[in-house]
Design a protein that fits this description.
Keywords: ATP-binding, Hydrolase, Nucleotide-binding. One of its GO terms (molecular function) is ATP binding. Residues 32-318 form the Carboxyltransferase domain. This is Biotin-dependent carboxylase-like uncharacterized protein. It comes from Cocleimonas flava. By secondary structure, this protein is of the alpha+beta class. It has two domains: 6-185, no CATH class; 192-319, Cyclophilin-like (Cyclophilin). It is built from five helices and 20 strands. A seven-stranded mixed β-barrel has the order 12-19-16-17-14-13-20. The protein is elongated and about 65 Å long. The two termini are 38 Å apart. The model is unreliable at 169-176 (pLDDT under 50).
Amino acid sequence: MSLDDLLPPTLQIVKPGVISLLQDYGRYGMQHYGITNSGPMDEHAYLWANRLLQNNFNAPQIEICLGGFEARFTKPTRIAICGAHLHPTLNHKPLKTWHSYAIKAGDVLRFGGAHHGLYAYLAIAGGFDVKPQLSSCSTVMREYLGGIHQNGEKLVAGDSLDYPHYNERHIKGTGPFSTVVPEAYIPSYPDKISIRFIPNYSENGCGEAILNKFTQQSYRVSNEINRMGYRLKGEALPHDGKSIISQGISTGFIQLPKDGQPIVLMKDRQTIGGYPLLGCVAHLDVAKLSQSKPGVEVEFVKVGIADLEGELGEYSGFLLS
């Protein structure tokens, strides 16, 4: 046995791309301390990538935004790529998204620019071996939390991520793994999307007249988007400019600031806010919005909680088991 055999397998980051972050399912139970949930922007793609490898649903992955990523594997393993199509290649050979692949020692994985969508997810068999911070390794740059150095920093060239040893005999065939997500579960990322939301009729809302106006027009995703929130652009909604008493807020909440242009709060949102709320985007539709580039047209459709509970329960039972 050589010294190299004793070293842990590592993924060596050659180019981090525009922004690449370590994410697990998220940091829950910390909002009363002012700490956000974080986790994958596109939960659907993240969960499917882990499922393809029979990982625990919480296994850490790399979230790659807009591409430009390059890395080298030191030992054999298996990976899955889901989400946006960022023109991935393995040793210069094109790969498909929503697939899993066998990896050999020395293989080089690259992602080009974004073609459809914004976020791609790179999962590895067993998950990346990263020490959690406050119960999660999810990276929140604003809060200096998570990541491989537990300081909220994005991945940079020269970083190395350990991953579990993998039995090489499994990569000679498909083994126990599915190699591709069924077509029915693979989303497209069109130029126009419909987003379901639960309207807010409470005293911290905007009133029924404004809600009706909100649903009677469409919006465009603006250039002001990030992991905290997506600002939309359209005909400004009438607003008296008054704030409300700050309250706890959740992923998907739709705030109406003074300029009348809605903001949908995403995974790295703040934990409290004082803008009136139009409602909350359906949990499963947050992923759809997260993959929408600036310029994508968005329309909002009112739904009730009862319309979504069964769907979410079935989805969670399947992908979070």
